[in-house]
Amino acid sequence: MVIRRLPPSRRRALLAGLGLLAVAAAVAFGVWLQFGERHALDTRYRAGDPAPDRVDIEASVQRVDAAGRELVLRLLVTPRGGLAEAGGISPAETLTLQTAASTRGDLTFPAHGRISTVDVPVTLTAGSITDYPFDAYDAALEFGAVQGGEAVPVRMTLSNNDALFATSVEASEEDGVAVFDLGLERSTSVLIFAVFMMAAMWALAVAVLIGAWFLLSRKKGLTWPALGWMAATLFALAAFRNTAPGAPPIGSLLDYIAFLWAETVIAFCVITVVVMGMRAEARLPESPTPA
Question: Domain extents for the chain?
Answer without folding.
Answer: 42-186, 190-283
